[in-house]
Amino acid sequence: MKWQAWHRLEGMRDACKRLLSDVPAPVAAAPTRQPILSRRKQAATIMGASVTDEIKYLVTAIHRLGEKNAAGQVVVPYGKLVHDDQISNTLEGLFGTLKAAKKRKVVTFQGELLLSPVHDKVEVVLLTDVVPDA
């Protein structure tokens, strides 16, 4: 009895092998990789506003909070920017946005690093309203 069951199993296995030998093995498609740049752009759109959009918001906030100086430029103290609720709720990081705006020559301020209680009186000067893309 055991021999007969084993023989049937062997016969089924051989039949399956013959059937499967006629069918070509499925070929998996090679995965396509996206370029790194497009993945970074996707991450930027998923995570929120881009740096350019944050700088544009900063320009409007400086217009809202600032005053014109003798040269006709809009000037706002850093402390006023730090303590404004709308800015703190909208921007990811105020100093990072200011640094990016300074690099694009949209604003200027004295020093490399601005810390809130120490540099509250440092003036942030708006140079232009036009925000260039990176």
UniProtKB/TrEMBL annotation:
Give start-end of the signal peptide: none
Q: Which residues form the Costars domain?
A: 49-127
A Pfam family of the record is: Costars
Q: InterPro entries given for it? A: Costars, Costars_dom, Costars_sf
Q: Which GO BP terms sit in this record?
A: regulation of actin filament-based process
What are the TM regions of this chain, as residue ranges? Answer: none
Q: Which family does it belong to?
A: Belongs to the costars family.
**What is the official name of this protein in its record?**
Costars domain-containing protein
From which organism does this entry originate? Allomyces macrogynus (strain ATCC 38327)
